[in-house]
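Q: Here's a chain of 232 amino acids. Please give me its 3D structure as tokens.
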Amino acid sequence: MIEIKEKIGIRIHAIVDLMPTVANVADVGCDHGFTGLLSLAKKKAIQVIATDISEPSLRKAYDLAGEYGLMSFYDFRLGDGLDVIDKDEVDAIVISGIGGELMRDILERGKNKISNLTTLVLSPNNREDVVRSWLYFAGFVVVSERIVEENDKFYQIFTAKVSSSSIRDISDTALGNHMVDTPEALLKKYYDYKISQLKETLTELEKAKDAQEKIDEVKISIAMYEDKRNGV
């Protein structure tokens, strides 16, 4: 049993809890290395490939693994996104702590590395809609999802796999169809927050010229979140 001394946040715990139990996990953009460490401690993975584009960040994960005597359970790789991972090498890929647009770009560039058996575990810092839309149009389906609140900020966490069917639910591009272990009160609070944000955006768009298409998109999003809020 690995006894962790570091204080690891709610979000990372939720990411590891939502991740399926696998043999090999890639922690992409591992930074401090807490996700990989917790994956081993909770026996959610046997082996961790820790990657980062930053050598100092990768060194932090390397030092952490050494501190816990876990070097034999790690493979450390310096590189960008999924560039340093081979197809069929891992059962799960975790990407978190970056913006949604960057996450989408990493997935698009490395989509040939994602096999039909790979589970993606994703938690963008923002623009979750961009990531979820990419998943939908790239042929993935959301399998499970959760909302957490940490330091007065909400985070979506969702897992996705290649869809076995050509028919998918486009509402997967928004939150709520596969929710796991998220208290109703937190879910309502999150929906209220999203609706408030979107209404502020709508107010600004209505002041602009030639923004009707975007206005219509935001109105659809508001209606979708209100429908989900009312269904909780």
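Q: Can you summarize the key feature?
A: The beta strands are 24-28, 47-52, 74-78, 92-96, 119-123, 140-150, 153-162.
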